[in-house]
């Protein structure tokens, strides 16, 4: 079956119109009134502060997004770094934040359409028009649209031209007297206003949300995010200066359509028409982008098992995530309708959306630090925050976020915390039972631990369950050394990585399949399981690399059981690991579903105590006791002497393996043909553990004849064990 | 690597619907190597990874059954499956990646007896002529070469191009009596091609360098192809 590729269709211009367009979008027409009321002419400073906070977030997000360019944005990075609890908070925060923002745009839409028409009046019409606009957007998105970036480019272009013309013309009509006093509400008023206007900066997050679709992501994602934040900040500051300069801020503060009220001063009726048209386009396109982004967040949550599949399903005919879109639309409609009751609905919606995104961004900063500290294998961002700015960017980002939130009105903080609470509640009700990702935070705090660790390379979904079960059993025997840990490694073999395509997404898909299979077993055996996804051209080298990184005590590998003779012993993927891994190595060949009663060959070989210990560990799976087997040739006529010698060997092996006499059964067989007797006896057990022979001087893997015959002829499960490499 | 020195043509198919390829097209494309691009259109609302998750198996199965119709012994048939929001983007990328000489454009026809080959001066001439040669060598189809010169210019230049192309086709093993040419003077070349195409079953066009306006508003060939509604091959301008 051919593997589907994912095309990246969003180029630089589309990303700019998506992100930048959403930012200059509706906010620029609605916010100046609220901002002027909150901070007077100094509201331009509020926009600068908001822009700076956004820029810090854009820097951290850029690094994370180029490290993991797949759908989901902030949610995905936080979920991976900090686990399902915070993932759930950010996922729900972003989703509701986008709903609040969307409702905010649509109320603005209503206000701009209602205001210039004298006979339509009042909030009922504003709300009604908002709802009509919203249902239009939801309807279009339900049925699905083809990528029509041309239309979007033209619309955003037109809107930008109107705003630029407004600024350029308006600058000549500024009355310096209006700018006095510059900051009537003082610093706290400026900061409080920052909290309201921050909603205008959530557009760059939309770029991160669609990161999986951006062409040349390592260039375009950082470039468009940072560029759009910088340009939009400058533009907003200019708009505020013009707006508060042309009319006294008190007059603007009272207006629902501030930009249009100012435009009428210097551009007359033509100006008003242009502004109203631009505001309507802006509201529709911003709201549309929010609905799109909300569906992506929902998909990403579903992908990580944080959201119900039911909500995530795509429509049979239209291919759209219709249920997520309807859900987003329904909640947004309720929020718009709340405008009937709540007088300050616009500011309220804006501020709650800001709150949600501020919380998300501060967690993104934390996620960045966690990623840098834990440094997981597959995290290799092409954009890195320069060393002089790290950790200043994330630290300052979190601090400023807290400062801005602290100046918000109590009711907003309450509502915002309610949304955070929704995420927390969701975690306990749903996520905890479904998702497995524990995040990287443990590794970030304590990168290495002394607890027993077993590395299990897994590739085949049919056998990985058994491998993990066996690995868990061996890990379980070491609980006294601290909580043991399993590391499931999957190597995605890539012959020729194509940087254009979504290896990241495929890798994730693979990893998830793996996690699903591993989860139940790990839970059942009460061990911690962590997964590492790697890509490499050669499987053996990549596994050795993982062993080098993880420093496990044991590596447990599945082996088909066929010896190859073309220059390999166990196979091209295994030989190097068996030879060179600086830890214990167990190769298992599974013929039987039950591990049942294991037997270990207690012989003179250097690895036979390890084989005995492994047999004891495997025995714990089915609650049995291992048997140590030794076969001796008869010595003259006296079988007693031979069996005494056999018992002596068993005692010795058991002692070196650290097994107490009650921990194992013993069996000594006296027979002329040792090999035949071993085979015949061992085959009565469900699982046979056998140590490798010593290495030869040529340092090739030495199998040993008995081990080899068992691996080829036994019908039971076989574990071939090698102890620590002394060399 | 292609098994022969023959050209490679990219054949895009929409794998979100079941649509078996026409027999005439299968016959026509026999003498060349193929890259069958199964694309699954993704609406703007949906992350491509999302649809891939839901429809990959079904899409791959469809693609496989289409590829099996194309498969034959002496030429290679590769397949690629892509979830995309923009079919053209994907066609361009895959054609580039697999070194395709031309891209097939589906259209309505029952038979392929008459092939129209508009030529635009020296651009891409070599490639177009050799591809046409490969396609018709084994069939009975007739080829009409077409060139348009602006009104008032010396037509001998255009005649030279057409005569040269016809000679090359003959050298390539196509009977001379299956080749004719038509030179038009004045009028819009685009219009001329569209009017002429009505009488033909199949068109082989050279890719045009898009103008700035075309880059912003869409590919230049789209209007021609949309109007003629005939199956066609667009020969890529690689150098």
State the helical fraction of chain A. 55-70%
**Computed Rg of chain A:** 33 Å
Major sheet summary line of chain B: 9 strands, mixed
Q: Name the overall outline of chain A.
A: elongated
Could you tell me the number of beta strands of chain B? 9
Distance between the termini of chain A: 45 Å
Q: How many β-strand stretches of chain A?
A: 11
The pair of chains with the biggest contact is: A-B, 41 and 40 residues
Structural class by sheet pairing and helices of chain A: alpha/beta
Assess the beta-strand content of chain B as a share of residues.
Answer: 15-25%
Coarse shape of chain B:
globular
Largest sheet of chain A: 10 strands, mixed
Q: Nutshell version of this structure?
A:
Chain A has helices at residues 12-24, 27-39, 43-67, 74-82, 84-114, 122-143, 149-170, 186-197, 203-209, 217-246, 249-253, 258-303, 309-312, 322-337, 345-374, 392-406, 410-434, 441-445, 464-476, 503-525, 539-550, 575-580, 608-619, 639-657, 674-682, 705-713; strands at residues 4-6, 453-457, 485-493, 528-536, 554-558, 584-589, 598-601, 627-632, 665-670, 687-691, 717-722.
What's the structural blueprint in terms of helices and strands?
The complex is a heterodimer of chains A (about 725) and B (about 240).
Chain A: E1 4-6, H1 12-24, H2 27-39, H3 43-67, H4 74-82, H5 84-114, H6 122-143, H7 149-170, H8 186-197, H9 203-209, H10 217-246, H11 249-253, H12 258-303, H13 309-312, H14 322-337, H15 345-374, H16 392-406, H17 410-434, H18 441-445, E2 453-457, H19 464-476, E3 485-493, H20 503-525, E4 528-536, H21 539-550, E5 554-558, H22 575-580, E6 584-589, E7 598-601, H23 608-619, E8 627-632, H24 639-657, E9 665-670, H25 674-682, E10 687-691, H26 705-713, E11 717-722
Parallel strand pairs in A: 2-3, 2-5, 3-4, 5-6, 7-8, 7-10, 8-9, 10-11
Antiparallel strand pairs in A: 6-11
Chain B: E1 8-14, H1 23-28, E2 33-41, H2 48-70, E3 77-84, H3 87-97, E4 102-105, E5 114-118, H4 125-136, E6 142-149, H5 156-171, E7 179-185, H6 189-197, E8 202-206, H7 212-217, H8 221-228, E9 232-235
Parallel strand pairs in B: 1-2, 1-4, 2-3, 5-6, 5-8, 6-7, 8-9
Antiparallel strand pairs in B: 4-9
């Amino acid at each position: 079956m051919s593997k589907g590729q994912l095309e990246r269709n969003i180029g630089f211009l589309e990303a700019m119109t998506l992100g930048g367009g959403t930012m200059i979008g509706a906010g620029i027409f609605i916010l100046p009134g609220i901002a002027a009321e909150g901070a007077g002419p100094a509201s331009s400073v509020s926009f600068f502060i908001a822009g700076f906070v956004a820029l810090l977030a854009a820097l951290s997000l850029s690094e994370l997004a180029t490290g993991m360019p797949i759908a989901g944005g902030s949610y995905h990075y936080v979920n991976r770094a900090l686990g399902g609890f915070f993932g759930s908070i950010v996922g729900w925060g972003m989703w509701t934040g986008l709903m609040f923002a969307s409702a905010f745009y649509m109320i603005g839409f209503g206000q701009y359409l209602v205001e210039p028409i004298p006979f339509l009046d009042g909030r009922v019409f504003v709300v009604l028009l908002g709802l009509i606009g919203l249902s239009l957007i939801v309807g279009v998105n339900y049925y699905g649209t083809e990528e029509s970036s041309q239309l979007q480019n033209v619309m955003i272009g037109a809107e930008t031209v109107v705003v630029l013309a407004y600024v350029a013309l308006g600058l000549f009509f500024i009355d310096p007297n209006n700018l006095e006093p510059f900051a009537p509400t003082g610093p706290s008023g400026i900061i409080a206003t920052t909290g309201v206007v921050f909603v205008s900066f959530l557009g760059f997050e939309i770029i991160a949300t669609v990161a999986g679709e951006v062409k040349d992501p390592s260039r375009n994602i950082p470039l468009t995010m940072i560029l759009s934040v910088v340009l939009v900040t400058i533009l907003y500051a200019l708009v505020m200066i013009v707006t508060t300069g042309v009319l006294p801020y008190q007059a603007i503060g009272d207006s629902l359509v501030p930009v249009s009220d100012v435009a009428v001063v210097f551009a007359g009726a033509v100006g008003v028409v242009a502004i109203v048209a631009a505001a309507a386009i802006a509201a529709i396109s911003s709201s549309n982008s929010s609905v799109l982004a909300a569906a992506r967040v929902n998909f990403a949550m579903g992908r990580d098992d944080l959201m119900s599949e039911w909500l995530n399903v795509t429509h049979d005919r239209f291919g759209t995530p219709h249920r997520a879109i309807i859900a987003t639309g329904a909640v947004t409609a309720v929020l718009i309708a709340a405008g009937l009751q709540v007088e300050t609905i616009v500011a309220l919606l804006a501020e709650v959306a800001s709150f949600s995104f501020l919380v998300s961004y501060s967690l993104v900063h934390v996620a960045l630090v966690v990623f840098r500290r834990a440094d997981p294998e597959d995290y290799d961002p092409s954009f890195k925050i320069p060393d002089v700015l790290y950790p200043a960017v994330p630290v300052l980002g979190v601090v400023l976020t807290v400062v801005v939130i602290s100046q918000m009105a109590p009711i907003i903080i309450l509502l915002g915390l309610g949304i955070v609470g929704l995420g927390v509640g969701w975690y306990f009700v749903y996520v905890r039972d479904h998702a497995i990702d524990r995040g990287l935070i443990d590794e970030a705090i304590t990168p290495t631990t002394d607890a027993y660790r077993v590395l299990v390379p897994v590739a085949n979904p049919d056998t990985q369950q058994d491998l993990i079960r066996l690995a868990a059993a061996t890990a379980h025997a070491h609980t006294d050394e601290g909580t043991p840990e399993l590391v499931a490694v999957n190597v995605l073999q890539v012959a020729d990585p194509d940087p254009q395509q979504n290896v990241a997404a495929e890798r994730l898909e693979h990893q998830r399949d793996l996690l699903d299979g591993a989860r139940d077993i790990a839970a059942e055996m009460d061990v911690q399981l962590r997964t590492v996804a790697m890509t490499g051209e050669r499987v053996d080298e990549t596994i050795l690399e993982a062993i080098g990184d993880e420093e496990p005590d044991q590596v447990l590998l599945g082996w088909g059981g066929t010896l190859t003779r073309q220059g390999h012993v166990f196979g091209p993927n295994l030989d190097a690991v068996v030879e060179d891994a600086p830890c214990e190595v167990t190769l298992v060949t599974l013929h039987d579903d039950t591990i049942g009663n294991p037997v270990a060959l207690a012989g003179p070989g250097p690895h036979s105590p390890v084989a005995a210990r492994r047999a004891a560990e495997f025995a714990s799976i089915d609650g049995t006791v291992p048997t140590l087997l030794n076969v001796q040739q008869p010595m003259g006529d006296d079988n007693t002497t031979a069996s005494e010698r056999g018992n002596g060997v068993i005692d010795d092996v058991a002692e070196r393996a650290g097994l107490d006499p009650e921990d194992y059964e013993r069996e000594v067989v006296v027979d002329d043909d040792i090999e035949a007797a071993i085979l015949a006896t061992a085959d009565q057990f469900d699982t046979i553990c056998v140590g490798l022979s010593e290495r030869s001087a040529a340092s090739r893997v030495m199998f040993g004849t008995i081990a080899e015959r068992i691996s080829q002829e036994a019908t039971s499960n076989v574990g071939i064990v090698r102890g620590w490499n002394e060399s | 690597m292609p098994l022969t020195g023959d050209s490679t043509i990219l054949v895009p198919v929409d794998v979100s619907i079941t649509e078996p390829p026409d027999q005439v097209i299968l016959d026509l494309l026999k003498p060349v190597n193929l890259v069958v691009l199964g694309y699954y259109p993704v609406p703007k609302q949906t992350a491509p990874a999302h649809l891939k998750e839901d429809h990959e198996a079904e899409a791959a199965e469809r693609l496989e059954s289409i590829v099996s119709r194309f498969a034959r012994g002496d030429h290679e048939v590769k397949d690629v499956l892509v979830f995309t929001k923009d079919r053209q983007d994907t066609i361009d990328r895959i054609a580039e990646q697999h070194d395709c000489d031309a891209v097939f454009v589906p259209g309505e026809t029952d038979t392929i007896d008459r092939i129209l080959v508009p030529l635009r001066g020296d651009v891409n001439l070599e490639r177009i002529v050799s591809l046409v040669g490969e396609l018709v060598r084994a069939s009975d189809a007739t080829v009409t070469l077409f060139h348009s010169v602006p009104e008032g210019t010396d037509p001998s230049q255009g005649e030279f191009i057409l005569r040269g192309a016809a000679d090359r086709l003959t050298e390539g093993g196509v009977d001379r009596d299956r080749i004719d040419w038509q030179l038009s003077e004045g009028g819009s070349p685009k219009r001329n091609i569209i009017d002429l195409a009505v009488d033909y079953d199949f068109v082989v066009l050279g890719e045009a360098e898009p103008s700035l306006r075309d880059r912003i508003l869409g590919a230049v060939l789209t209007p021609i192809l949309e109007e003629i509604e005939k199956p066609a091959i667009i020969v890529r301008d690689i150098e």
